[in-house]
């Protein structure tokens, strides 16, 4: 059953599957399934929290309706297959197409349980079959379930079966999908058919920078920053990287080259989610180039401010951008940032250079953008440093019971990161530098930070630096400053 669903989702290896089937016969399905999983799914990195949540839900005696969603290629299917290991489970992949096409695919997944050529004659009979399976505490995964919303009455019928049957049984129904806008409309919003029925919701995000060391053991810490800055944390994108090549070679080959596997990826995603993506692409390009405030985005895109907010909200709902506001100030001006480094890189370096890249001039484009790329790495390093500080606060490595975290800005003055405890009225103030600092440079940076910190209202302050490298950092640490280098974050 599982092998059939995998075959449907990963059509590029169907030929391999069929060849093994002919060679070994139908008596070795497990072997063929392992072949598929090994080829398609290379890594499973740091999804411990999500796995733990699923396993906790599985151990309860109550029925479970679980929504798993996130952008495509972020690793949802890999997570669910890992969860299904050694459990009584069924995996159904929802293809694009009519109700007949979907039912045909669902039927093929289970036909060996009945007879060759078995078919569910309608969606109700499929759900009746699931009801029988739920009596056996079966886990049922329906992947890309949002496509069922295109079949008249399918989502409403799932709601009805949940209310009348599934909720009283022992099974677990997992509905997984990648069209975030559609999923929120049919399952997460207050007026959605499945609202109030789900027992667990998992929003699967890309991996964080700190997870990349587990994936790429050969790269230096600086190389890992370059990889993350260009490819982000989406597992399917990271799988395109050849660790025997430099990050720069991977960037040129996989992203800049018109034949690269990821050259058009953001366009495909926007086309899947949005009817007219051109204006959204202009907005994302503006933000990637540092036009982060509403007026700046409006001026760049020529979209009226009263209309622009609608577009920005749609991009927020797709988790492609987020809002940031300075902390610990009264006047908090909102700025917009792209959430995923891959998309920020693409809209900053690929989209504006499309003409040259389509002419096969990716090497020329790269040579011309290397200086700007290094400046871009500084922005990414701030994001990475923020992730690191939060992880240290959670683990107790930083003794600040922080409930406020972010950038501080007052007039022309900025502090890159502040972690503040509103209960204890104390905090950590940090400057982030994507460069090697001498002792004198580091000391001067701290003195300037202390001067800016006089305008930050808190009872107790500690100052520090996070940089690529800091000379004599031990001496600065002995003076009571928080000093971290890139190698401290990624050993």
- Going by CATH, the homologous superfamily of the largest domain would be Winged helix-like DNA-binding domain superfamily/Winged helix DNA-binding domain
Tell me the CATH architecture of the largest domain: Orthogonal Bundle
**Main sheet attributes: strand count, strand direction, barrel closure:** 5 strands, parallel
What sort of overall outline do the alpha carbons produce when their principal axes are compared?
globular
Determine the structural class based on helices, strands and strand pairing.
alpha/beta
Ends apart, CA distance between termini: 42 Å
Brief rundown of the structure:
This protein folds into three domains: 43-203, 3-Layer(aba) Sandwich (Rossmann fold); 210-381, Orthogonal Bundle (Arc Repressor Mutant, subunit A), CATH 1.10.10.10; 398-489, Trna Endonuclease, Chain: A, domain 1 (3-Layer(aba) Sandwich), CATH 3.40.1350. It is 50% helix and 16% strand.
């Amino acid at each position: 059953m599982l092998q059939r669903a995998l075959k449907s989702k990963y059509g590029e290896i169907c030929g391999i599957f069929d060849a093994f089937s002919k060679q070994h016969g139908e008596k070795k399905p497990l072997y063929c399934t392992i072949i598929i999983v090994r080829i398609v799914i290379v890594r499973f990195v740091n999804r411990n929290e999500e796995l733990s949540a699923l396993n906790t839900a599985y151990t309860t005696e109550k029925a479970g309706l679980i929504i798993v969603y996130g952008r495509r290629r972020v690793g949802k299917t890999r997570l669910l297959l890992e969860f299904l290991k050694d459990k009584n489970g069924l995996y159904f992949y929802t293809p694009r197409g009519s109700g007949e096409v979907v039912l045909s695919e669902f039927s093929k997944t289970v036909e060996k349980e009945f007879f060759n050529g078995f078919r569910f004659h309608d969606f109700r009979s499929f759900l009746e079959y699931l009801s029988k399976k739920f009596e056996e505490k079966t886990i049922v995964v329906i992947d890309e379930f949002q496509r069922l919303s295109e079949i008249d009455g399918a989502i409403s019928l799932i709601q009805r079966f949940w209310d009348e049957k599934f909720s009283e049984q022992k099974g677990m129904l997992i509905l997984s999908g990648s069209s975030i806008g559609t999923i929120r409309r049919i399952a997460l919003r207050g007026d959605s058919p499945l609202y109030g029925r789900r027992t667990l919701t998992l929003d699967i995000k890309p991996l964080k920078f700190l997870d990349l060391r587990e994936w790429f053991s050969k790269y230096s810490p600086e190389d890992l920053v370059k990889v993350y800055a260009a490819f982000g944390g989406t597992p399917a994108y990271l799988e395109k990287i050849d660790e025997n090549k430099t990050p720069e070679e991977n960037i040129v080959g996989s992203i800049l080259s018109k034949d690269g596997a990821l050259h058009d990826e953001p366009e495909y995603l926007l086309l899947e989610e949005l009817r007219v993506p051109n204006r959204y692409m202009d907005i994302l390009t503006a933000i990637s180039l540092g036009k982060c405030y509403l007026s700046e985005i409006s001026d760049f895109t020529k979209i009226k401010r009263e209309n622009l907010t609608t577009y920005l909200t749609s991009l927020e709902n797709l988790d492609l951008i987020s809002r940031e506001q300075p902390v610990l100030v009264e006047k908090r001006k909102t700025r917009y940032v792209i959430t995923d480094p891959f998309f920020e890189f693409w809209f900053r370096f690929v989209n504006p250079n499309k003409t040259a890249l389509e002419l096969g001039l990716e090497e020329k484009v790269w040579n011309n953008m290397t200086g700007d790329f290094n400046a871009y790495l500084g922005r990414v390093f701030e994001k990475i440093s923020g992730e690191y500080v939060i992880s240290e606060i959670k683990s107790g490595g930083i003794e600040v019971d922080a409930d406020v975290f972010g950038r501080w800005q007052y007039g022309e003055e900025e502090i890159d990161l502040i972690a503040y405890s509103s209960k204890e009225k104390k905090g950590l103030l940090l400057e982030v530098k994507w460069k090697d600092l001498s002792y004198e440079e580091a000391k001067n940076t701290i003195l300037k930070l202390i001067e800016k910190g006089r305008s930050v209202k808190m009872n107790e302050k500690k100052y520090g630096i996070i940089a690529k490298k800091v000379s004599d950092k031990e001496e600065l640490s002995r003076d009571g400053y928080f000093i971290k280098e890139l190698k401290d974050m990624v050993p």
